[in-house]
Amino acid sequence: MQSGLPIAIIGAGAVGTTFAVALHQRGYRIAGVASRTPASAERCASMVECPHYSVDPVEVARAADVIFIATPDEAIQEVCRHITEEGGIKRGDIVVHFSGALGSNILDSAKQKGGYVLALHPIQSFPKGEVSVGNLVGSYFTLEGDPEALRFGERVVGDLEGTAVSISSETKPIYHAALCVACNYLVTLTDLAVKMLEAIGIKRQDALPMILPLIKGTVHNLQRVSLPDALTGPISRGDLRTLERHLGAIEKILPDYLDVYKKLGSLTAEVAKEKGSLDHDRYEELKRLFTKQDDRTPQQNP
Length: 302
Ligand SMILES: NC(=O)c1ccc[n+]([C@@H]2O[C@H](COP(=O)([O-])OP(=O)(O)OC[C@H]3O[C@@H](n4cnc5c(N)ncnc54)[C@H](OP(=O)(O)O)[C@@H]3O)[C@@H](O)[C@H]2O)c1
What we know:
The protein is an alpha/beta fold. It has two domains: 6-167, NAD(P)-binding Rossmann-like Domain (Rossmann fold, 3-Layer(aba) Sandwich), CATH 3.40.50.720; 174-291, N-(1-d-carboxylethyl)-l-norvaline Dehydrogenase, domain 2 (Orthogonal Bundle), CATH 1.10.1040. The protein contains 13 helices and eight strands. The chain has helices at residues 14-25, 38-47, 57-62, 73-85, 108-112, 133-136, 147-159, 172-199, 204-225, 234-237, 240-253, 258-275, 280-291, and strands at 6-10, 29-34, 53-54, 66-69, 94-97, 116-122, 140-145, 163-166. It has an eight-stranded mixed sheet with strand order 3-2-1-4-5-6-7-8, sandwiched between helices. It is elongated, with a radius of gyration of 24 Å. The structure holds NADP nicotinamide-adenine-dinucleotide phosphate. NADP nicotinamide-adenine-dinucleotide phosphate binds next to helix 1, helix 4 and strand 6.
């Protein structure tokens, strides 16, 4: 299904351009593109057969019935207020932002002029400067806002072969933090592993390709057997001696990483317990090993 409503894209970055291209491919009409720099607006407009691009979001919004504000989070409220105050929003317009952390209430200025507001968050990662339609299609999306705008959002999600999940604005900070753990911290953990391999003389450019198949295999296991059964390795097996050797070597070569290794080890022991691969005594031993005070760390006064 496609929407005949003319759409304005405000903020022609990774998400704005990806939505524009994906929806254009599905028969939606992108009526105008505005961005801070003309080059970004022109680039996006050229991809979606849109003759109208500008650095002025008001004139672009005026010509549309649906306004996508795809600027960085900190600019959304101000851009919406500016467009509204300058007459870019008319009664019945649908105004959408894509932030995972913010509620639709930051678009209140548009609502006061009779607009319907929506926070539509794709649970996906869009690298800067890229158009990632393949990432967008088939994703999960959370939606929150006015019923009239929700109906439009659900149609967009359906056309993108996605799954729509409703969310309340109050829970969005925790929701967004959880997604940061799944996405951003995965990158951080990968970086940590690469640095550990570098510390024993493996070149950085070799380290990532060495562990990428392991990461992909683990993601595949998560898809196949889910949580907690995807957990493998020494903690899952309750192999105390191996883990003591890990801690001894990390303390010697990479002491700054000891705390994070122990904290994650302690959390991993809980996953292993849930999986049922540790008996109670071995679980307690592992928890003691991972919470034991580092000898080098001064004891804190109670
Ligand atoms: N990236 C992700 O993985 C991801 C995932 C889910 C949701 N989101 C959300 O999507 C939204 C956009 O993020 P993004 O990653 O696409 O950011 P981005 O790549 O940095 O793009 C933002 C664009 O907004 C434009 N812009 C900045 N200030 C502006 C203003 N005052 N008026 C008009 N245009 C302005 C910039 O334009 P110029 O290029 O012209 O300077 C830039 O191209 C954010 O709400 C973000 O939280 C992002």
